[in-house]
């Protein structure tokens, strides 16, 4: 019998090494139940063990039963979920009298997102729901969910943006699978069903795909002519006592808001519970050798940039998000050895840069303080 | 007596229909239906049955009968199909009836449209007729069916 075969004995029903059995435990049923149920849904269980070193158990679960983060939106009274991986950003535009933020190009709605023109798709129109309930025509703001389908971006106009949720993807029956705008369905906390939108399917259905492609090609040509350097997407924010700062967008996992009551103090450091982990919060003043820390007013909620390093989250407390810009980064002054940050002029203002080494240092601090608890 | 001669019965627009009792998983009250935009019109939407997402098909629409009065809430006859469970929306539920094979007749040749395709047999009972549906056909909607919300232009 090979080692693998020996290890797989733990899955045999009734196999037990227990000396004593009670009515509940030691009967050799547990691992058999795990294996049968995982295999029933099309997954696999793998056990690798080394004597004296440890055991790892790998569960592979098919995607149709996977849990994914998604944004829940509503249009005309129906709720839909948009997978987080398709999301780029959310834009809320206030309607001012006599001014329409949505412009039209030959009957197609477009929106100026910073320097880009992105096509807009009204979700209620794509889904044929125009005749139902109240639309967003009367509300004072327009909610745009900027999504990415392959290499193209477009804005999805919805009535309401709710919240992000972890959702369980359930497949649709065969007769509904041909509707390409849906990727599946999910059951929400209140027992109601929400359909999951397939962003690529929507782009194909509305047929603006070819138009977007033209735009993208146009943009790329324009960029190529103007600046051969790589453009970088940067998140601009403001920190009291430090001023304007920027961090490359790929380093940012999420932007979250916490109530001061959620902050707990562990080992002298501020920690919040976030996605099942204890996430350390850092005030930039403490790692950057500049400025005095002025504590924020107690009542205000905390704006936190979440960065992820090797699966662990680190939170950076900031005061205000300013913008997301796409810029060719020209560093005026490199980082000094005394702890001063590199600076660059972004959108006409001197801005300090937070880079990957800073993020790594934040994480290092967290581990040194013993916050890394399983 | 074999199971093939037992039928779970229900009513649609005053007519009495049945499906093989072995195809029926459960019968439940009206459930909240989540509409699926762009789906064929006979598909009323999705219902949540104990955490399972099940497609609900309006049999009145499938059989080309007049639409149900909106105040009348449909009942669900959940049937097993090759495509998992499907719920058939009906007006009201009848009994499970046992019929003898010699009362079976082929459906009239003059039937037209969906009824001709879906009604598998007619059983003569002493006071009325039971129309038995082909479960698999009744619980699927032809791919070419008109989509709700599809624009004509």
What can you see in these coordinates?
The complex is a heterodimer of chains A (374) and B (153). By secondary structure, chain A is an alpha+beta fold. Chain A folds into three domains: 3-61, no CATH class; 65-215, Roll (SH3 type barrels), CATH 2.30.30; 232-368, OB fold (Dihydrolipoamide Acetyltransferase, E2P). Helices cover 18% and strands 43% of the residues of chain A. Chain A has helices spanning 3-7, 30-40, 123-126, 174-177, 199-206, 209-226, 284-287, 356-368, and strands at residues 44-50, 54-60, 67-75, 78-83, 87-94, 102-105, 108-113, 116-122, 141-149, 152-158, 160-168, 182-187, 193-197, 232-239, 243-248, 252-258, 264-266, 269-274, 277-283, 302-309, 312-318, 320-327, 331-333, 343-346, 349-353. In chain A, strands 5-9-10-8-7-6 form a six-stranded mixed β-sheet. In chain A, strands 22-14-15-25-24-23 form a six-stranded mixed β-sheet, with no helix packed on it. In chain A, a hairpin with a 2-residue loop joins strand 3 and strand 4. Chain A starts with a helix and ends in a 6-residue tail after the last helix. Chain B has a single domain (3-138), classed as CheA-289, Domain 4 (OB fold (Dihydrolipoamide Acetyltransferase, E2P), Beta Barrel), CATH 2.40.50.180. Chain B is built from three helices and eleven strands, in the order βββββαββββαββα. Chain B is globular and about 45 Å long. The relative contact order of chain B is 0.24. Residues 148-153 of chain B have low confidence and may be disordered. At the A-B interface, helix 4, strand 12 and strand 13 of A face strand 4 and strand 5 of B.
């Amino acid at each position: 019998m090979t080692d693998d075969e020996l290890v797989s004995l733990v899955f045999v029903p009734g196999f037990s090494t227990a000396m004593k059995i009670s009515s509940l435990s030691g009967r050799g049923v547990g691992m058999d139940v795990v294996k049968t149920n995982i295999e029933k849904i099309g997954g696999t269980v793998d056990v690798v063990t080394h004597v004296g070193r440890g055991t790892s158990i790998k569960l592979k679960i098919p995607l149709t039963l996977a849990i994914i983060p998604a944004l829940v939106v509503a249009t005309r009274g129906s709720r839909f979920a948009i997978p987080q991986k398709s999301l780029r950003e959310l834009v809320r535009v206030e309607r001012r009298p006599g001014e329409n933020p949505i412009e039209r190009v030959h009957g197609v709605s477009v929106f100026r997102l910073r320097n880009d023109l992105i096509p807009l798709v009204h979700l209620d129109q794509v889904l044929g729901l125009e005749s139902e309930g109240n639309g967003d025509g009367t509300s004072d703001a327009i909610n745009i969910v900027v999504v990415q389908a392959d290499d193209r971006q477009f804005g999805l106009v919805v009535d309401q943006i709710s919240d992000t949720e972890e959702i369980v993807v359930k497949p649709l029956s065969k007769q509904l699978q041909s509707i390409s705008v849906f990727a599946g369905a999910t059951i929400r906390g209140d027992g109601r069903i929400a359909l999951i939108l397939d962003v690529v399917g929507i782009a194909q259905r509305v047929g603006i795909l070819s138009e977007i492609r033209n735009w993208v090609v146009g943009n790329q040509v324009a960029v190529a002519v103007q600046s051969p350097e790589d453009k970088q997407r940067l998140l601009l924010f403001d920190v009291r006592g430090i001023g304007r700062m920027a961090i490359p967008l790929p380093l940012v996992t999420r932007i979250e808001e916490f109530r001061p009551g959620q902050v707990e103090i562990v080992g002298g450091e501020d920690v919040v519970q976030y996605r099942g982990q204890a996430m350390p919060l850092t005030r930039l003043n403490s790692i950057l050798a500049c400025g005095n820390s002025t504590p924020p007013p107690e009542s205000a909620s905390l704006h936190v940039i979440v960065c992820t390093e090797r699966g662990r989250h680190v939170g950076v407390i900031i005061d205000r998000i300013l913008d997301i810009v796409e810029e060719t980064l020209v560093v005026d002054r490199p980082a000094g050895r005394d702890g001063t940050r590199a600076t660059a002029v972004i959108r006409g203002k001197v801005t300090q840069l937070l880079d990957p080494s800073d993020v790594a240092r934040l994480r290092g601090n967290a581990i040194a303080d013993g916050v890394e608890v399983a | 007596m074999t199971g093939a001669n037992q039928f779970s019965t229900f009513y649609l627009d005053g007519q009495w229909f049945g499906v093989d009792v072995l195809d029926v998983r459960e019968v439940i009250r009206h459930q909240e239906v989540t509409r699926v935009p762009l789906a064929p019109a006979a598909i009323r939407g999705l219902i949540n049955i104990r955490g399972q997402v099940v497609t609900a098909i309006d049999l009145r629409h499938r059989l080309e009968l007049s639409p149900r009065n909106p105040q009348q809430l449909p009942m669900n006859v959940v049937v097993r199909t090759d495509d998992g469970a499907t719920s058939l929306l009906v007006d009201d539920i009848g009994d499970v009836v046992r019929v003898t094979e010699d009362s079976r007749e082929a459906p009239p040749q003059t039937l037209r449209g969906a009824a001709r395709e879906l009604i598998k047999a007619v059983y003569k009972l002493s006071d009325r007729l039971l129309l038995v549906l082909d479960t698999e056909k009744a619980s699927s909607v032809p791919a070419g069916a008109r989509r709700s919300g599809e624009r004509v232009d």
